[in-house]
Amino acid sequence: MNLGDRRLLPFRLDLVTQFRGLTERRGCLISGSRGWGEFGPFADYHVDADARWLASAIEQADGLWPQPVRRKVAVNAIVPAVEPAVAAGMAMASGCTTIKIKVGDPAGRDRVAAVRDAMPEAALRVDVNGGWSLARAVEELEELSSFGLEYAEQPVRSFEDMVALRALVDVPLAADELIRIDRRFDDVALAADVAVLKVAPLGGVRQTLQVAQRVGLPVVISSALDTSIGLAAAVAAACCLPERPLACGLGTGALFARDTTDPLLPVAGELGWVDYPTPDFVETGEDLDYWKRRIQAAAEVLARS
User: Which domains does the chain have, with CATH numbers?
Assistant: First the structure.
């Protein structure tokens, strides 16, 4: 892949609160024939994962998305590991009626209780990021089930533990890491009731649509802590799915103190299709060499595939 004619705009953007150990989001925007795409694999990602992020960014930048079948999708708000009272305030301020709450830390149950008290009619989801043992997951989900959870996302990490957990609890389970990292597309239905699909880690909108068909489960299109340029690709995937997805995990724009473009935030709990947004920040050149090296290595992988 020839990247010589493409502009690169690195970014470092502060988050309003710590999210999964991060206080800022780093990445690089890549220009194309239609606009810009977002390349934002995390620091610990392998080059094969980087290649999928690059494929997604190029697809977006070159205007290669399929045509949508709908123009808006419902989204969930995201509540990170904050104090319970703050969690309730974030949930209520979001305008969403579906709320995903990070748990797994000692305050997780109190956080869910606070949101439930504040929003008695909301659909609540919890996300553990694979952090519990099987025994702890059974215990925790038995307690959390009293809050009427729509599902629990990846309470345990391994496929085998997810299969076992699904047989032991009544709370529906959603798979993220099993799909995004382990790429278990063909048997994930044995371990989960819902598939969480993240566009950039899967290789773009078209690849995400193929994975959705392959897994054969109800789908939630979710963010990989994308800026609003990357979120536009996730919204595009949700709008292109043949079947309307469950409320999508795309409320993460609210976590950014500053964004790469006009913030893509839910209005009345929905996000709408955006035609290839363009950046509106001044590039400083910081990290440019770092991102050039990662992008070139990823491009070499794509060229061999």
Answer: 8-65+281-304 (3.30.390.10), 72-272 (3.20.20.120)
